[in-house]
Amino acid sequence: MKKFNFENFLAIKYISSKKEEKLISLSSLLSIISIAIGVGALILVLGIMNGFDKMLESKIIGANPHIIIKNFDGTFNLDRKLLGKIKSDKMVANVYPSLVEQCIVSANGQSSGSILNGVDFSDKPYVEKYIKGRTNGIVLGKELMKAIGVSAGQNVRVTLAYSNPTAMGFSPVSFEVPVTGVFDSGMYEYDLAFSYIPLDVLWKNMQTYDQINTIAVNLYNPYNINKVGSFLGKILPSQYYFVTWAQMNKNFFTALKLEKIAMGIILLLIIIVAAFDIMNSLTMLVMEKVKDIAILVSLGATSKNIKSIFIKQGLILGFIGTIIGDFLGLSLGYILKHYDIVSLPKQVYYITKIPVDITLTYVVGISIVSVGLCVLASLYPASKASRMNIIEVLRQ
């Protein structure tokens, strides 16, 4: 025969109070609602922030080389043997020699600074998926084209921050080239700053054949940068150094991480306030149930039994509120992810839907913290009930 557990029975019974104890019942209900709102909001907000983080990370990874290799001397001769060594690693998808120069792009009386990337388009470079149009001329970023008021087919003047020696001294390299394509990464800063041109066209105008200053390395898995970095450290000559996409954007990702932590702490305060509501509710319940506790003790209940009743009640309230909050957060996250409930201006965010990425780790972690806080909040009233002077109560 199954043993009757009076602790569980009384913990559940005390939650659904009688008519004369409506205040306690209402307080418990408000605690559950507060916990549900706090948990739901925390799951949803962290899911949205995580979605934005992953979206930005994917765009940064897609629009930049995963690893760039430079030379301490600046420009250097194109060494195809070195490129072959780098590409020999099974984690390396491709290696692209490039010449990157700062320049001013001018047209229609308007000018804008740009980072001009001389690349070999015949080797299908990493940015090819973001380029619309032909690549036999200059490819300008979408926002850069707007800034100087040009469209595909028009000519622009490119003035490099590089000079060629002449009889009159050094003269900046400047040339006209037709706009044949548009670079559209979906990142405003990149679309305003970057432009691309065939490497042989740039060599011809700069008169620096087979000279490069960057080796771009793309990986099959961009998160293998540390493993490939160890490989590069062994094969690269001493005058070369490399930087990964994570190092290039370290400050940006650190800021996003700190923002997520700060927002999590702020929303966690809602759950903490709800836990205090539970503590107040149980404290009131202990004061109301003084006679019941005295009778239980006189019937043989120990201090541990009395304490367990109120801890279990806090656990039940926390568990119910957390489950409702989980359902609330996951449901709202699913709706925002798959339906246009909230529309974002595309010209500002380059997306129309709010990106939501709720992971199981977040949900489980938030749920454990929420229930744990509720149990901690019940310790004080439970301890107070277990230390009550029963003899005095019975005398009264």
Automatic annotation (TrEMBL):
The keyword Membrane applies. This is Lipoprotein releasing system transmembrane protein LolC. GO terms for biological process: lipoprotein localization to outer membrane. Pfam families: FtsX (PF02687), MacB_PCD (PF12704). Its main location: membrane. It is a multi-pass membrane protein. The chain crosses the membrane at residues 23-49, 261-279, 314-336, 356-380. It is found in: Cell membrane. It comes from Desulfurella amilsii. Belongs to the ABC-4 integral membrane protein family. LolC/E subfamily. The keyword Cell membrane applies. Residues 28-228 form the MacB-like periplasmic core domain. Residues 265-390 form the ABC3 transporter permease C-terminal domain. InterPro entries: ABC3_permease_C, Lipoprotein-release_system, MacB_PCD. GO terms for cellular component: plasma membrane protein complex. Keywords: Cell membrane, Lipoprotein, Membrane, Transmembrane, Transmembrane helix.
